[in-house]
Structures are given as C-alpha cells and as structure tokens.
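Exercise 7b. Backbone tokens:
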C-alpha cells in the first residue's frame, strides 16, 4: 500500500523506527500533567479516528477518574479489510503513535501500556520503535470484529477475539480487570501532536465542528490506491483526487459498516453532519470507489456474505439475520426474478438493527439498506432479470 502526496501532512512525514530522527523532526515529548493534557485534548476537539468518532477527552477522562491505576491500549488492529491507514501510519511514523501512548501512560500512571497489532501485520518497524520506549507490543488475531474494544480486551486477557459482555464497560473493568483506555493508533498520534503543538495549532485546519486531519484509505476503481491525509471537512472529491477515480458510480464511505454516496454527490463535505443524510460517517476513513462496470449488488452480496461469516455467532441477529440477509441479497444479485426479495431484505435489515451485543449487526444492516436505497434502479432491473452494469440478462 503506497502513500500519496497530499497537501495536509501532519502524520505521514515520519522517520520510521529512528527515534533520534523523530525527536529532531518533532522535538522532545513534553512532560505534562494529566489535567493539562486533558484540557488541551478537550480544546482541540479531537475525536476518535478508529470508527466511532467519540470525543477523545471524554474517553480519557472516564478512565482517568478511576482511583485504580489503568491499562492503556493502543489499537492498531484494523479489522476492516478495506482499511490500511494504521498499518501505513505505524510503518511511517511509529513514534508519533508511541508518543501518544507514552504521554498518556505517564500522565495517567498506567500500570501497563500496550500497543496491539495483528499477527499478519508487518510489525518490524513498530517492534523496533517499541523496544526503545518500554511499550509492550501485543501481536493478536485479526478479523472484522477483533478490533472492537471488548474483543481486543478479551484477547489481551488470553481469550478469543470475540466481543464480550456489553454491560461491563472496559473503562470500569478491562484488561486484568483494571480500568482500561483503548485508543486507536491514529488517535494516539494526534494526541502526541496536540501535546507538542497545542489545541490552537490542531484546530488551524479542518472544519470548526470537526477539526484537524484524518487518514483515509482509498481503493476500488482508482488509478492510485493508497493512504492520504486530508483536513476533516474536505470535500469527498478533493480527498479522492490524488487517487484518480475512474468512472465512479458511487463511493462507499466508512467501509463495510458504512454507506454509499452516489457519484452525483461527490461535493459533500466529510463531516458527521454533512454525511448524515446518506447515513454515512467518516468512520475509520475508508473510501472505496465503485465504477460503472461493477455490479453494486454483486459487490454488496459478497460483502454481506463476508460480514455474516465474520460474526461471532453469539447473538440472534448474527446467528440468523445476517446469513439470511446475505443469502437473499445473493439471490437478488444473481437475478432471481422474485419481486418480494428487496422488501424481505430491507425488513431483515431493520429486524437485526440494535439487537446484537455489539454494533456488528447494525453496521451490516446499514450497509445493506444503503445499497438497496442508492442502487434502487439496479434493484428494480435485477428483479426483471437484467443487470445494467453487465448490460446483459442475468435471470437465474
Ligand atoms: S452482535 Fe454478532 S458480532 Fe456482536 S457480539 Fe453478538 S454475535 Fe458477536
């Protein structure tokens, strides 16, 4: 996965594992109190870059409020197959991520400070960087739900990569039963920059209500797939431009749990507010371009099948709902001439929503419902046994 030249580079101009070069580039990591760093993060408006977009200051404060010494975990497990931003960040600028861990670990008097990566990830650079910083590196199982906070804690406690009891917050009882703060790798790198340069600097780019920069992984029908850094609130077409999209019909924003933005709307700004009408969010920064030769229903059926297979099969919606949704979507993609299929799929997507112990069914349902909505012309044609992308009859 390459990195591309972009105009807003705060995170990717890294120095690899060389700590001296990192300090020469960014200066020494300041020693600041928890209250100071918390105040600065709050003023910066930094939100999590792992997907949920939760205010980072609130998350840190929830764990810092405990009287017990916490565990701090950097999450670089990119369960989303379309996302590579954390892997690129760790290869290019590992010390920025470790800065965030070290700084918060020190300020919170953390009992353990851990960086979690997947076993199949090339962790050579970050492993060398961790050695110089006394930060534990945990190489764990990957998988779509493995990066989910409770699944990550479960693995660090020696269990499987499965989400666990949603009623016990990891901020109260996580790794080793201690209050645990899990922050995404990119979020930690941003914390390292905020601590050095301050909230005003952080807010000098991006939108007023969504400041700073983000990493985006761009793929699909583009000439140059890769990871770019862009200001939050940039227009979708501006962020995509360096990748040179080809014949786009729509862009999947936010990955397999995301939603489609039609090609007619590429001027939309990438903020929570502007993306809300599409039921999309920036999430972990995945932008996947679909071209006019790729059938969106075939693409979506493959994704739905993958998502059904990636569930932990612990809850009803994952056990029954997701496989049923994937099967029906597969039939629709294959041209089954059954006019009841679209309604059945939509009903199932509503049924599974909000019923799981984690957000996997909700995200899967959001993706499927968005597919039926944005590609409704395709849906109607497939029911008639015709695929507009393939330009041929497909009736099965
Ligand atoms: S909703 Fe699905 S993925 Fe989430 S915990 Fe339940 S079975 Fe596992």
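Sequence design result:
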């Amino acid at each position: 996965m390459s990195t591309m030249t972009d105009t807003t580079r705060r995170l990717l101009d890294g120095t690899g594992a060389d700590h001296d070069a990192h300090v020469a580039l960014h200066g020494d990591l300041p020693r600041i109190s928890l209250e100071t760093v918390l105040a600065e993060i709050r003023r910066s408006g930094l939100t999590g870059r792992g997907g949920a977009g939760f205010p980072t200051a609130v998350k840190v404060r929830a764990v810092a409020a405990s009287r017990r010494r916490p565990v701090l975990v950097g999450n670089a497990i990119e369960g989303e197959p379309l996302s590579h931003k954390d892997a690129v960040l760790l290869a290019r600028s590992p010390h920025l991520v470790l800065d965030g861990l070290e700084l918060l670990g020190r300020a919170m008097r953390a009992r353990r400070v851990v960086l979690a990566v997947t076993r199949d990830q090339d962790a050579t650079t970050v492993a060398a960087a961790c050695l110089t910083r006394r930060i534990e590196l945990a190489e764990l199982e990957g998988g779509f739900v493995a990066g989910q906070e409770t699944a990550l804690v479960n693995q660090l406690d020696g269990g499987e990569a499965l989400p666990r009891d949603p009623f016990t917050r990891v901020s109260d009882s996580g790794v080793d039963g201690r209050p645990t703060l899990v922050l995404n790798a990119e979020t930690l790198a941003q914390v390292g920059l905020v601590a050095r340069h301050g909230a005003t600097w952080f807010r000098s780019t991006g939108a007023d209500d969504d400041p700073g920069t983000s990493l985006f992984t761009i793929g699909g029908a583009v000439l140059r797939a890769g990871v770019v850094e862009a200001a939050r609130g940039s227009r979708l077409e501006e962020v995509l431009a360096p990748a040179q999209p080809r014949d786009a019909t729509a862009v999947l924003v936010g990955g397999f749990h995301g939603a489609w933005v039609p090609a007619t709307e590429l001027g939309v700004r990438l903020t929570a507010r502007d993306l809300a009408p599409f039921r999309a969010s920036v999430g972990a920064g995945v932008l996947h371009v679909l071209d006019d030769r790729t059938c969106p229903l075939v693409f979506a059926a493959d994704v739905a099948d993958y998502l059904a297979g990636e569930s932990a099969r612990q809850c009803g919606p994952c056990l029954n709902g997701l496989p049923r949704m994937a099967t029906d979507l597969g039939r629709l993609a294959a041209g089954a001439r059954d006019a009841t299929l679209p309604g059945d799929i939509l009903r199932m997507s509503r049924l599974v929503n909000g019923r799981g112990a984690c957000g996997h069914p909700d995200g899967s349902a959001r993706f499927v419902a968005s597919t039926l909505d944005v590609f409704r012309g395709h849906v109607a044609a497939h029911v008639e046994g015709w695929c507009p992308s393939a330009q041929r009859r497909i009736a099965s």
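Instructor comment: The radius of gyration is 21 Å. The pocket of iron/sulfur cluster is lined by residues 145, 163, 311-315, 317-318, 356-358, 360-361 (CB under 6 Å).
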